[in-house]
Amino acid sequence: MPIRQLPETIVNRIAAGEVVERPASVVKELVENALDAGARRIEIVTAGGGLSLVRVTDDGAGIAADELPLAVARHCTSKIWADPGDIRTLGFRGEALPSIGSVARLRLRSRPADTEHGAEIAVEGGAVGPVRPAPGNRGTTVEVRDLFFATPARLKFAKSERAEATAITDVVRRLAVAFPHVRFSLNGADRSPLDLSPHAADGQEGWLARVADVLGADFAPNAVAVDAEREGVRLSGHVSIPAFHRANALQQHFLVNGRPVRDRLLAGALRGAYADLLPRDRHPLGALFVEIDGRDVDVNVHPAKADVRFRDPGLVRGLIVGAVREALARSGVRASSEATDGLAGAFRTQAPSAAKPARAGNGRPAGFDPATSPSRPLEPGFGEEASTGWRAAFEPAADLRADEAPIALDHAPLGAARAQVHGNYIVSQTEDALIIVDQHAAHERLVFEALKSALRARALPSQVLLLPEIVDLPEEDAERLAAHSETFRRLGLGFERFGPGAVMVRETPAMLGEIDASKLVRDLADALADGGDADLVEKKLDAVASSMACHGSVRAGRRLKPEEMNALLRQMEAVPGSGTCNHGRPTFIELKLADIERLFGRR
Ligand code: ADP
Ligand code: MG
Q1: What is the pLDDT of residues 50-81, one digit of tens each?
Q2: Does the pTM exceed 0.70?
Q3: Which of 11, 30, 33 is the best mutation target for the ligand 1 pocket, counting ligand atoms within 8 Å of the beta carbon and taking the most?
Q4: How far apart are CA 440 and CA 333, in angstroms?
């Protein structure tokens, strides 16, 4: 067959496969163009999750009529930077408009500031129309309709309208954090509107105000400042205290030299900084700026994805982990001790001087609610209800009378069980304190520790796959996995290198049951890339042990006999790590007699 050059439309569609993954990528490209054009006001309208319509209007520099055909032609850009290490615009490839035009119906209308009349050009499925005069305000409007009409296969991959609409909001919020002085509005029948008013162009203030707009008003009072520098790399911004977290990582914003990025290394470093401070499935919030010499970072990694490549990833990672940890430590919000230390303050007494209220991060006394405070004035009819409520709340443990517990137990660190209250809390007494144990949390931890030590005692059994599974992955990942293959094998995961950029999995840990081997391997590679820990499989297995423990534990609500309660206390004393549950919360709290006496004004 003769060799020929691919037609332009096909070339553009191939590029579109990379650049235009979903409607949110269209929004990203168009808003970035508006920002590059110096817009101060950007209006975005979508319909059908961006699949039927995306329209972006800006008040930026505009495009001259005779340049409209160039704007939609491949590899044509007004953003040429001599030094690839010094790219100061968001775009630089000249690929977005032709790519979008090849898979959708695109209309580009513009009027530069210095001209009277505007003009427009249309591209439908790659067919470029003529330039026509068109009325319009100063600036540019790009309208994209029927995305992927020209590539039905791609259309099939679109998620629900709602999911696409949400992804678009996320893209806009990310760009908005980087450009606080620009007004953004996002509207459409497919969404709740977003309107971000402009703030001061530079300086911390405007930036903080925009972060507050995007991350929510309760972020600032629950955040700590991060500011550090290492070998010329500067990190600044704010992150949430460990007590303030979310179910996903969408509220994490990273900017590298002012460019919003979504990067595995950065996200992994942030996660690492909170490693033992947050429950496993919760995520911190934050907005972090990395400033680094342009020659030490490559933003040119992927046309659409927002990841970057650092020349010295270890340096950046170490800087983030170190600086965030230090900021958190400085703010004094380390988890479990805080819960106990603040406890005495959380008790409210009739004598206001008796206890100083603990301050939560937001400056309000912790747990203070005037409507339910026991110190509030009595209301008519209240006394009756309150007294029955109190009786119901205190249920002495079955068969337990205080004097039945052997006195010797008072010397044990967790003391002698005296009662079980609210079906889940064991109240015990030591020589000088009152202990309250969360029985479910405590038991869960004990089972977990038992499973873990059983796991570590010997090499774990594996299960041989009928057909070895080939997993393709980036070469660095494959290499990193291979470096730990012995540890993995001991834990029942057997694999070997399979040429460049792939591994072949032969066995998986039997205790994991039927699993998606390639997902396990990829997750492990991700985690290795993030944390670099050698004991990763162990952590994975810990996760398995942890969820098994959770299923097998005494539920809250089960009545325990005194012997059972005391047995639990003795086990807790014997097992290291039993002071916190598998999710990092405390399993017991201690209230010193001295503090109790202080609360009653006896001291
Ligand atoms: P790139 O942004 O990489 O240059 P694009 O295909 O996104 O490539 O855009 C091509 C060119 O069209 C840009 O370089 C710019 O000159 C022009 N352009 C696109 N959108 C706008 C806009 N909103 N305002 C002004 N010029 C624009
Ligand atoms: Mg662009």
Answers
A1: 999 999 999 999 999 999 999 999 888 998 87
A2: no
A3: 33
A4: 25
